[in-house]
Amino acid sequence: MWTQKILLPLAVYAAAFVVGQEDRAQYALTDTGSTNGGNTFPGVARPLGMVKLGPDLYTGTDSYSGYQPTGNFTGFTMLHESGKGGAAKYGVVSQMPSNQTKNVLVDVSHVLASYRGQGLEQHFLGGNISVEREEDSARFFYTGFGTYDNGWNRAGPWTVYFCGRFNQPSTYKTFLGADFVTDDLVEFGEEPSYESKTARLGAVFSFTEYSLVSRVGVSLMSTDQACSNIEDEITDDMTLEDARDATRAAWNTEVFSKVSTSETNVTKLKQLYTAMYFMHLLPTNKTGENTLRESDEPYYDDIFTFWDIYRSLTPLLHILQPEYYEELIRSMVDVWRHDGWVSDARSSLHNGAVQGGTNGDIVFADAYVKGVRGKVNWEDAFSAMVKNAEVVPENNNDPRDPTGSTKEGRSALRDWLDLGFITPRFGRSVSRAVEYSVNDFSLATVALGLGRLGQFQTYYKRSHNWRNHWNKDMSALNFTGFLGPRDRDGFIAQDPLSCGGCYWQDFYYQALPWEYSFNAHHDIETMVELIGGAEQFVDRLEMTFTPGVSSGNAQFGHTLFNPGNEPSFQTPYLYSYVNRQDLTVQRSRFVAKSYFRPTPNGLPGNSDAGAMESWLLWNMIGLYPMTGQPIFFIGSPWFSDLTIDLGAGEKLEITAEGVGETTFYVQSLKVNGEQWDKTWVSWDDIFAQGGKLEFVLGKEQTEWATGDRQPSPGSHSVGEAKKLISRYLPEE
């Protein structure tokens, strides 16, 4: 059979194997989550790299990552995103090999199709292809560009430049629309460039050999840079094996070496390193590839989306990749400087789409309270946050929600500022009220750190506005009091077990009122009081995990807890706030073991750019972050030993005596050698300068954690909150 070997640049440099390095890449299963709605990308990539080479297959529905396990193959393309929904994105610079006629079709006009409607489908807006003969050779190479738009973030036009080389002589002919531009196959000579405004455009190369190497470079800057990328990263004499080895070494060195264990259970190792793999595919490091501005700052793109990843992925990226994480924060600030907004999401150099609040604010606050400084200009970062909190963005007229901007900012800000709650004249009114509150608490935190006491007071008070949506008369399953919709005349009747369509114009987005009523994580003490106290709080959490409880939304499965969507991520850990750490372990371990597997169908829902995988990683580590606060709930580790490399010579060591499939309840814990009686640890305890956690695990549920509860910084007077938050802000 004739085969085509494709070599491609995957990063800004090539890595070599480290002598004696453990090959943990053998445990990373790159097809995990590629079926059953996981939408992961099963192709080839480097950590946070721009190029993601993979096959595009269609079955009449959106192929979000380009791949579906069945369907019609349409070519290998250079750019994809992993684990995202909304609508298909990228699928550009396509090569389609044929083993019947020994041809390679290069299709400039190829994009991933979308069947969603709503103006989300991508379009080929025009392009160029030129074919030239290499000097003193019978081999041809091609260059050009394609311009496209849309995808899940409804992006404006974006252009990708390309440069492709083959290692074998060929003939070729170009096509424009349905017609070939050249009547006969050309053997030698130089052809002019061909342009297209909308018609299909490309070239067909024909070969005599059955084995072929194709090297392709892409760039967002120019064809010259695309060609330079090939020569810098994939030389003419590099073999496919060389490229594979270099990619494997990059993953081992840059990612998998960050976490080590003596564990020999292969299933656990596969889950550990597979999850690490998928949480390092997005956001994409496109530093040096931003055509929209001149800047010396890093540039990160393909952020899908902070709504999805702020709860679990960005806090873990900070720990595993502190240099990349600081670059991401700097890139966010620089996007605000040049584009005017830090959006909740961004792709192909364009902002969009905002699903709820301005959750980049939470990412900023999390970085600030955990001491990220370096080259971050925090005055500018805070200015970007203030714009989100004070300026109503221009409506971009998104058919998904025409009530306000989905591109950037907080489109329901008018109600928020005027009324202290959000009426249904804006889509997602209740779920956004919860998010706006957490966003405002994030501003209050950074304002206090910067000495802006007036702004601290303003945003701290606004962070309590979620309480204005608490309807004490909403009831379900013998529980009363939930977050409900309201207008100027009062509350609107609502079933706590239904969110209607759970979509952009509904009261709640992608989760039930029951779930969102647990989501004011900065103000947990108030939440517990409104629910009726610690005992009622535990009972309501238990009902959340009770099998067979019916819901008005069938897609949420057999319990009210939804393992496949982010508003439920924190819920299993909330027991710990009232010192029921045993139930935190019981419920979170059940979710992880029941819904996650190292198999193609091994995710409970859409990966959401690694959000699902990072949630699993925290569970395996035995901690869970309270993003925006330097606090981590204590869970139960899966390994007898685990060491996390924190950089700068620091590490976190975790040991677990008695660990097993049935012996996972915490019996006792030491933190840095001291006996521990709290359900939480702080950033300073174990991450700032490293640390050690020593667990003893067993079969019995024990209430070992009887110490002080986790702080609830949003539940106090302004003066008390100022004292509390000041205690955990890093010293400047």
Count of folded domains: 2
Q: Supply the CATH class of the largest domain.
A: Alpha Beta
Major sheet summary line: 8 strands, antiparallel
Mean pLDDT: 93
Radius of gyration: 26 Å
Secondary-structure arrangement, i.e. CATH architecture of the largest domain: 2-Layer Sandwich
Write down how many β-strands occur, each being a DSSP E stretch of 2 or more residues: 31
Task: Explain how this protein is built.
The protein has 732 residues and is of the alpha+beta class. It has two domains: 3-8 and 52-242, Beta-galactosidase, Chain A, domain 5 (Distorted Sandwich), CATH 2.70.98; 282-728, GH92 mannosidase fold (2-Layer Sandwich), CATH 3.30.2080.10. Helices cover 27% and strands 21% of the residues. The strands form eight sheets. Strands 2-3-4-5-6-13-10-11 form an eight-stranded antiparallel β-sheet, with no helix packed on it. Strands 1-14-9-8-7-12 form a six-stranded mixed β-sheet. It has a six-stranded mixed β-sheet with strand order 15-26-27-31-28-29, with helices on one face. The protein is globular and about 80 Å long. The N and C termini lie far apart (65 Å). The model is unreliable at 1-5, 8-20 and 183-189 (pLDDT under 50). Residues 225-698 form the Glycosyl hydrolase family domain.
